[in-house]
Amino acid sequence: MSNAPRRTALDALHRSLGATMTDFAGWDMPLRYASERDEHNAVRTTAGLFDLSHMGEITVTGPQAVDLLNYALVGNIGTVGLGRARYTMICREDGGIVDDLIVYRLGETEYMVVANAGNAQIVLDALTERAAGFDAQVRDDRDAYALIAVQGPQSPGILASLTDADLDGLKYYAGLPGTVAGVPALIARTGYTGEDGFELFVEPQHAEKLWQALTEAGAPAGLIPCGLSCRDTLRLEAGMPLYGHELTTALTPFDAGLGRVVKFEKDGDFVGRAALTAAAERAGTAPPRKLVGLIAEGRRVPRAGMDVVADGKVVGTVTSGAPSPTLGKPIAMAYVDAAHAAPGTPGVGVDIRGTHEPYEVVALPFYKRQK
Fold first, then answer.
1. Do residues 39 and 220 lie in contact, with contact meaning Cβ atoms separated by under 8 Å?
2. What are phi and psi of 173, to 5 degrees?
3. For residues 281 and 277, what is the distance between their CA atoms, to the nearest angstrom?
4. What is the Cα 14 distance to its own chain's centre?
5. Residue 314 phi, psi dihedral angles, 5° rounding
6. Greatest CA span in the chain, whole angstroms?
7. What single-letter DSSP state applies at residue 299?
8. What angle do CA 317, 322, 327 make, to 5 degrees?
9. pLDDT digits (tens, 9 = 90+) for 216-257
10. Helical H segments across the chain, by residue range
11. Three-class DSSP category at 275
12. Which of 89, 92, 181, 363 could form an SS bridge with 96, CB 3.0 to 4.6 Å?
């Protein structure tokens, strides 16, 4: 097997647009087309177009599909209505986070699980293993879909010009089958930018046609193609966790401040229930560390892995950091000891190559769109 990165159905198109490509989780993906800042600002003010075909789609079908998912995942999949989606996680027996996921209910007994690119195989293997004894099938559908996202305040108008699907009736975290620019698609009102927007799951053979149609329809509104670099600064401003940074197997959902995704009230056992019950009790008494936002007072940019310091002691670790185009300052997410986690806590800094740069502790998210 070659170790050459996989290419999406839009690969030739990205190169023709002059994209800077990068290896991301084994895929060749566009990092940026021109200016990361312009791409970021387009999503905040008008609209941006993303190729997200590296995400991992796994289909679960059969009479006991819901029972399998309730056992394999921490969420209550039984309460997901037809045409709706749910943010959830898959954990290990010890409660550690394997991945965060979105589960779409496509039919009476058909669900699509969307995993992060770097974890898709791990999630597929875990679901396959956990399916033992259930009347359900787990199918690797990573090659069956291309995924194109249009994100930003102008995205509903742009998409509406290409489809007769009822976008007004499509709530956040819902998905409906429709036709966009003549292409059959699952239209989901989801995203990872902090803006309104849509993710369109289509057959790879139709990806180029759909991308071109969205590009043309969006041009008057200011839509531009966007790479993974601005996707990262957008999700960071919106306080959204990224697997491998804010979420790891060393952390439970409670450590990450996302205990709400664990549904103990659902029927039956689920993988990690006992460990997560204990984690919930620990979090209820005194969480060891808390995920917070940090805003720089200076210009130096914090990076993942750097120490958060106070009174000459290490009190936390930066998980993600970048210049924030919206705030005009460097920002970071970090796990910080509870004693220093309150917004406005004085004397907190980040150790950037030996210098303790001052930072303001704030509650997440840094940015929330005006509804």
1. no
2. 65, 40
3. 6
4. 22
5. -80, 120
6. 61
7. S
8. 115
9. 999 999 999 999 999 999 999 999 999 999 999 999 999 999
10. 11-16, 36-45, 65-72, 120-130, 155-160, 207-218, 228-237, 273-285
11. helix
12. 92
> Which tokens is 306 given?
């750097």
The alpha helices in 219-300, defined as continuous H runs, are: 228-237, 273-285
Count, in order, helices (H) and strands (E) of the chain.
8, 20
Look up residue 294 and give its amino acid. L
Is 132:88 a contact under the CB 8 Å cutoff?
no
Contact 217, 150 (CB under 8 A): no
pTM of the model: 0.96
Range 300-318 average pLDDT: 97
Model pLDDT, residue 2: 60
Give kind and range of the element (H or E) at residue 335: strand 329-337
> Running DSSP on this structure, what letter comes out for residue 247?
B
Residue 88 pLDDT level (bands cut at 50, 70, 90):
very high
Encoded amino acid at 178, one letter:
G
How many whole angstroms separate alpha carbon 70 and alpha carbon 272? 12
Say if residues 91 and 166 touch (Cβ distance below 8 Å).
no
Query: Which amino acid, one-letter code, is at 252?
Result: T
First CA to last CA distance, the chain: 48
Beta strands in 66-212 (DSSP E): 85-91, 97-107, 110-115, 137-140, 146-151, 175-180, 183-188, 197-202
Strand 329-337 and strand 224-225: the pairing is unpaired
